[in-house]
Amino acid sequence: xxxxxxxxxxxxxxxxxxxxxxxxxxxxxxxxxxxxxxxxxxxxxxxxxxxxxxxxxxxxxxxxxxxxxxxxxxxxxxxxxxxxxxxxxxxxxxxxxxxxxxxxxxxxxxxxxxxxxxxxxxxxxxxxxxxxxxxxxxxxxxxxxxxxxxxxxxxxxxxxxxxxxxxxxxxxxxxxxxxxxxxxxxxxxxxxxxxxxxxxxxxxxxxxxxxxxxxxxxxxxxxxxxxxxxxxxxxxxxxxxxxxxxxxxxxxxxxxxxxxxxxxxxxxxxxxxxxxxxxxxxxxxxxxxxxxxxxxxxxxxxxxxxxxxxxxxxxxxxxxxxxxxxxxxxxxxxxxxxxxxxxxxxxxxxxxxxxxxxxxxxxxxxxxxxxxx
Length: 373
Hints:
Distance between the termini: 103 Å
Radius of gyration: 42 Å
Strand content: 15-25%
Number of strands: 11
Structural class: alpha+beta
Helix content: 25-40%
């Protein structure tokens, strides 16, 4: 078993909980090598033995990067468990920071992130008399024994910070205990109030159609569905129609509401076309067998097959001409012919009415002299 192409394409996820461990499966080399579509980036993966099974850094956590002298705090936007990468969302302690949900930061390795434990108050340093509030990061993490939560469909465990950077204000080797780090809370999506462009709940829940009553038992006869002509008559001449009030309307619109290009309908039309061709061939063969006229049955069948093929060709030509006429090609051809004839008549009329002024070096053709004489 290996990772599918869809799982590889959607590896960067915003889910907080771990639902399965399919990210530990190997990735087929064909998905990494390509071929790739124009503009598509080559997917990256890590060897299965180097992948993290239980992720303690999830979307919604706050981390800093190891080696960052400025100590910038970032929020985790996504995690890619196949490539062991963490996508950062935004900076938090930059002066004049304005949250922007559309901005996405860089992608960094999982091992480069230090999880934020919290902010703690430290005693004043130097000449300052005010206590300082500093962020504390976990330099070493541990976890409890994971267990599967069947109701939610995911795995649950607790994560603890064994060691922190910097040390806690009241740190002591004898009384030190691991600090539990809570999981980030998932904020519920708030639904805005419907505006004038939205459909209200009352309009959605309104009952606009009541289906007809069905028989109480299977032995009872099913109600008769009125024909399409009866329905049309009930609309044009209500006095002559005798339709029940609860008669369904949708059955008369089945052709208009159904998709004619569905696979089942295409197959049904093709099967009917093939059955008609076979029936037509059998009809020609029976007609030739009925009047052999000194021919053998083999010769009669060959002649019937020839007539059958000619008939199919004639029907095909007639069908193509019908389609050509229905799509407006015949009317367009007639309009083009009329326009060309009108244009030629105007040109001929202009040449007939053309009068040249008398000038030297003009020669009158003999044909024109004979015509004037």
